[in-house]
Amino acid sequence: MSVVYAMFLVTLCMVFTTTELVSDQIPMNYFESCGFYTYLYAVSNSFILYLFTYVLRARFSGSPGKALDFDAEQFIQRFTAITGLNVQEIPCEANPEECLEQPRRFSIRPPSASQSQSLDQATEFRVKLMTSQNQTSHGSLFLRLGAIVFGLGTLIYTGLEFLVFFEVPSSCPSWSVLLGINPILYMVFVFIQMYFVFMHARLNINRNKIVAKFGMMHLVATNTCMVIRTLVKESVKELQYRVESEHEKLDWSKMFRNQDCLKEQIIGDTMENSSVYLFPFMIEYSFIGCSVVYSMWSHIGENPDYVVLDDNSGAQPISGQRHVREPLDWSASSVGLFLGLLALVTLIISMILHFALIDQHDYTTLAITIDSSIDSVINVCMIVGSLVGFLQIQNLVLINSHHVQADKIMIITGFGISLYNTFTSLAGLLNTSQQVLEDPAFVITNGFLELIQVCVQILFITDLRHRRIDVTQTSRPGRQVVTFLTICNLGMWITSNFEIQKVNSKPDQVEFYGFFPWIVIQRITLPLCVFFRFHSCVVLAELWKNCYRIKREERISTNSTASVISGGSTQ
């Protein structure tokens, strides 16, 4: 039901946004001023505050440090008063570390029963905790750091949107006080969700699951609606700029009838000029929020923790050893690092040349040729690197894949790249215009190479997620490739961010599909392409760190075993 609820909200958002664009009867931002987005923000903020004030502060916390606050004597007294039974705790006879992993045991007996009967009929009594820690993080450290960076860009974007409200006259048809309240609510939502995602990435909620499921799905729907809303608004701005610059003889009055309210603004002009650089931050922040919250939703109620410690049990948390920080091992990374940096510099130079020459009529063809050539070379290098990496990582050890799930986010965003390159290649194949600037064979080849690169990279990452280095291995097979692919994806993420800002970066496609259809195609597929590159960079960096790391306890165990063997051989 929670999924149906989220789908209902997203459907409403799509219908409302489309209606604002095509209908003559209502102004732009009508549904935002009617309270739909206010509802999204208010409920999202309320749910996150509920998590902070109640769930995360509950007495039965899944954190071993907070579990020390549990008063066993008070619990026994309250249980006895309610049930009329005599309850006594059975001491744990194992060592403190094993006691931490075992449930607490209590003896329950009627008031008239003897002590001996109590011990003979002892039953296990476990207290289910409100929250627990998942075995793996719902979002890697790099992904959560990305949430902070993109969240700050989103706050700047929304802050400018809030300031624009004070420059819009109340006589404007779309003016509403909610247009000033909504940015405040959204900024609060962005900030507290950013904090929640970063600080509680391993949270599992085990009680009040219905509230948790609907709340998490509401957060997913809110982030999705923000992506839809932002893409539509920025597409409208791009169309308006096109109409004003080229004076097209089209009736765009339906779409831009409220833009007259923004003509004499200072901050409004600043926002229009800067939004092209800021709105990708908003989209990527929403994608990260969706992915992390969805992962939390999928783990609600799974593997609940029943372990509760008190300060009289004598068992000390073993978290002291878990938080021992080890320096990163940078071995077997130098070649991949410098080759990746070379590819990164090449991509950035290509991007600068492309956008510097694309608007110069005499050099437009040269700009497109340079950009396509560099992209093709980088894609070929990444394909070869992935294939070499496939062969090298076969020397790693396969691990139990029970807890390793398929990366659905990478598959979905990879589908976006497939769509974008298919549209691009189709335009190169079928474009019969005499003003084609790029060789059709070049367009098709470039699109085909990127499709192959995406598929091979997804397969390589999927295989590597199920492997890790053996404690006895001294080499790091495949790590150079992982380093190279990480930096290459970083470079392609940077160039894709700039490509999404300019529709005329693909003039042949604009000529073939038309300006408005190409905006729609680009605004739908390019955000997925951008996030695919960012997510790939994050996942590869995480695999670079985890798959080739030998844990401290494994190293100690191996050294101890070697010492025992050597000692036995000397005897």
UniProtKB/TrEMBL annotation:
Protein known as: Otopetrin
Q: Which domain of life is it from?
A: Eukaryota
Q: Where is the signal peptide?
A: 1-21
Its placement in the membrane is given as: Multi-pass membrane protein
Keywords per UniProt: Cell membrane, Hydrogen ion transport, Ion channel, Ion transport, Membrane, Signal, Transmembrane, Transmembrane helix, Transport
> Which residue spans traverse the membrane?
39-56, 141-165, 177-198, 277-297, 335-357, 377-397, 409-430
What are the protein's GO molecular function terms? Answer: proton channel activity
Query: Is Transmembrane set as a keyword in this record?
Result: yes
Pfam families, from UniProt? Otopetrin
Query: What sections of the sequence does the record tag as coiled-coil?
Result: none
Kindly report the protein's main subcellular placement as a broad class: membrane
